[in-house]
Amino acid sequence: MDHVVLLQKILVVSFIVALFWKIIRYMCNLLHVEKEPVRILVTGAAGQIGYAIVPMIARGVMLGPDQPVILHLLDIEPVAEALNGVKMELTDAAFPLLKGVIATTDPIEACMGVNIAVMVGGFPRKEGMERKDVMSKNVSIYKAQASALEKHAADDCKVLVIANPANTNALILKEFAPSIPEKNITCLTRLDHNRALGQISERLDVQVSDVKNVIIWGNHSSTQYPDVSHATVHTSRGEKPVRELVSDDKWLNDEFITTVQQRGAAIIKARKQSSALSAASAACDHIRDWVLGTPKGTWVSMGVYSDGSYGIQPGLVYSFPVTCEKGRWSIVQGLMIDEFSRAKMDATEKELVEEKSMAYSCLD
Amino acid sequence: MIARGVMLGPDQPVILHMLDIPPAAEALNGVKMELVDAAFPLLKGVVATTDAVEACTGVNVAVMVGGFPRKEGMERKDVMSKNVSIYKSQASALEKHAAANCKVLVVANPANTNALILKEFAPSIPEKNITCLTRLDHNRALGQISERLSIQVSDIKNVIIWGNHSSSQYPDVNHATVKTPAGEKPVRELVKDDTWLNAEFIKTVQQRGAAIIKARKLSSALSAASSACDHIRDWVLGTPEGTWVSMGVYSDGSYNVPAGLIYSFPVTCQNGEWKIVQGLSIDEFSRKKLDLTADELSEEKALAYSCLS
């Protein structure tokens, strides 16, 4: 009989606990207050990438489906009417998460109170142009933007530079906005990272979501080093190294690298325009993982201010493998670097050092 | 947007079938390359082709954007003849190769008439599965009210777009409401400006497409794409309780609109089916507007058939 009584008691207690839990949950829901909107700046918003990214941001792709946003859109005077057209379309789309749109040609108004800045604005690369061709036009733009951001953005504003030459533009931005913490200024190499995942998934005929931990080292240019030495594929028998499954080191060390490095040019050749869709999507991924954290066991590639890790000169914006937690990135340490990789990593570092001096010479 | 789960929800994997004409084949492949480059977790495959049969094979949802685009200065009727022959041939490919119960959304203008042609030449596709996009106009109307009242667009609901996705559409706020701390209030009451609601507001929504072209030098893309996702999502996943949306659907004679046209009505959706909201009172002013846009649609229907003869 004791057992029965005990069982009855347990049942009653469980029932009461469950009921209580439901009541508390219900009360919490009643008190549910919508989150404060986050202000997101997009420069170059009247252009192709801007047009692709703003609906993604307004749909919650960047910060999650529960985070309201206010968009600050900046572009130059000659495209003010097109910029207003973008604002009109954002109104027309009736996005529930979009709590406001400021469309302006005034950098101060644009930067006011922003929590996240996505710097797309710059001189775009056209078919036939090398990235260095656009350098001089862009460094003066980024020097000016640095000062507006520094003075008017919110504290702890997170900055993502996309416009090429991305790493060097980010460096210029950092140099001329000394009060913005250096860890808050990054550049986009997630596009290259995603491109590398895509190439592996096509080669192995697997879902791209089963491939992870590729690394893009260095410059978002044709000297970048897409490294699969630590990349794995999720299979029914557990995580397997990409090198093992591909079984073609020649392809991995050669054609695969060239394909990823030159993918931007391949897109321009096919579309007659720079990548917009994939760049915008990668930018959302970059910010989302930075703010909301990377999944356990997974890292991503971000162009960040080098601290000397892996023997890379400090004071460059260099793409590293990073994990993110609580709104902070940290470089994945302790990965083995073989001779082949070392040479590649140094080559792209060399290019960045050259770009840095070229940029400074443009500014004199 | 589709690859991110905006159309069918964040848990629904998708395979994209993309179709375009041979002159754009390289650009189309560029789109496929970018989709691969974006490493979308939900995107389980991409078929990029210029072959209508390959494109239609096994599709469950068809978004018909392809057609001759409207350029600055062109009237919608100008593009009619080019488009009706396109839609006649697409009808037959869809009918033969799409999955059973394929849901079709026609976006290319003249949307209603293209959808009608599609329906007429794909008789084995259930008529309830062929719709056209007026959600863009519906969302534009919500946007205009939200700007006028300086409130969040998500607090406004139940506007109606009646009729043709053209400058004769009738954006009707008689049953629209705004969520306030004091409960749902009629839009007319809060705006307190019937002159604006009956004239300028209507005109702004009707001609918004042209205003976008004037500003961007290109037709609406972002907002049209977003509205297309809203249209399909609400159709497939259902409309929220107490809310209706506007869809261009095959008329059954409701509200004395001639049957046999693709006409935009207020609808609710449940279990993958749409249903016209019945019993809404229609005042004299609205009646005239409803009839005007129906007349235009009947004219377009006749014009379309004459193009095909």
TrEMBL record, chain A:
Residues 38-185 form the Lactate/malate dehydrogenase N-terminal domain. Its EC number is 1.1.1.37. Residues 189-357 form the Lactate/malate dehydrogenase C-terminal domain. Gene3D superfamilies: Lactate dehydrogenase/glycoside hydrolase, family 4, C-terminal, NAD(P)-binding Rossmann-like Domain. One of its GO terms (molecular function) is L-malate dehydrogenase (NAD+) activity. NAD(+) binds at G44, A45, A46, G47, Q48, I49, G50, D75, N138, I162, A163, N164. The chain crosses the membrane at residues 6-28, 40-58. The keyword Nucleotide-binding does not apply. The keyword Membrane applies. Keywords: Membrane, NAD, Oxidoreductase, Transmembrane, Transmembrane helix, Tricarboxylic acid cycle. The active site is at H220 (proton acceptor). It catalyses: (S)-malate + NAD(+) = oxaloacetate + NADH + H(+). GO terms for biological process: malate metabolic process; tricarboxylic acid cycle. It is an enzyme of class 1 (oxidoreductase). Substrate binds at R125, R131, N164, R195. Belongs to the LDH/MDH superfamily. MDH type 2 family. This is Malate dehydrogenase. It comes from Salix koriyanagi.
Automatic annotation (TrEMBL), chain B:
Substrate binds at R70, R76, N109, R140. Residues 16-130 form the Lactate/malate dehydrogenase N-terminal domain. The active site is at H165 (proton acceptor). Keywords: NAD, Oxidoreductase, Tricarboxylic acid cycle. Its EC number is 1.1.1.37. NAD(+) binds at D20, N83, V107, A108, N109. It holds the Pfam family Ldh_1_N. The keyword NAD applies. Residues 134-302 form the Lactate/malate dehydrogenase C-terminal domain. Coiled coil: none annotated. One of its GO terms (molecular function) is L-malate dehydrogenase (NAD+) activity. Belongs to the LDH/MDH superfamily. MDH type 2 family. This is Malate dehydrogenase.
